[in-house]
Amino acid sequence: MSLIVAVILAIVEGLTEFIPVSSTGHMILTAKLLGYDDQSPVMKTYEIVIQLGAILAIAWVYRERILNLLGLNKKVTVVSKSKYLPNRRLDLIHVILGIMPALLVGFFFRDFIKGLFSSHTVLWALVVGGVFMIFAEWFSKNKANVTAEDIDQLSYKQALLIGLYQCISVLWPGFSRSGSTIAGGMLSGASYKASADFSFLIAVPIMCAVSGYEMLDSFRYLTSGTIGYFLIGFVIAFIVAYIVVLAFLKLIQKIQLRHFAYYRFILAALFWIFIMR
């Protein structure tokens, strides 16, 4: 792996991991664009390493919330304009309900899912996922459908539904984990902001579990000849993902879900016209 390839892939991972455009899809398409073997063991190990860098970034952004969930931080925070409530209102049961469906599907269908990784699969997932996101935003515009304005108001049922929607992205590479969870949250009665917060929060345990499991098979590729590239990619992915998440949360009311859907349509069309044909 060349240094330029390592840097480009780390930037792509950091940019796309937590916004609803599919980091997996972008990694596959970027590798194809660069003419790189995206199925090589070293490449797969590198993807795991830079994904861990992105995970660390989101864990740092939500560090107080995570500490609260673990019972290690008793601070209170403002969850609405007029009330102070403990962060523990969202508890570990919400998180478990949000991650268990996808973990079970990923575990039992791991080999089947790996066989679906292809450029054509990703392009279709980008389009269908974009339509799904637009529908979710349309549904959420009716305020009567919104029962959870912030993450602390999510019910267990909503957490489970979000977890079930997340399974779509597990079974269909390119659909986008954050896209399926944010859109699924909005269809379940959560606001855009609450859905995004919960999507980012449950990304930490589920991605740690998946990446950790995959690393058991790939650890031997962390050699003296590759560790330098991996370390550079890890740091770059962390920095870029951290900046992207902070910007997304700050601009969440300005950048609607449909804007990401439009980007997905354009990307799929461009790749189909200029690369795939």
From TrEMBL:
TM region(s), chain numbering: 42-62, 90-109, 121-139, 195-216, 228-248, 260-276
Enzyme class of the recorded protein, top EC level: hydrolase
Main location: membrane
Protein localization: Cell membrane
Family stated for the protein in its record: Belongs to the UppP family.
Role: Catalyzes the dephosphorylation of undecaprenyl diphosphate (UPP). Confers resistance to bacitracin.
Name of the protein: Undecaprenyl-diphosphatase
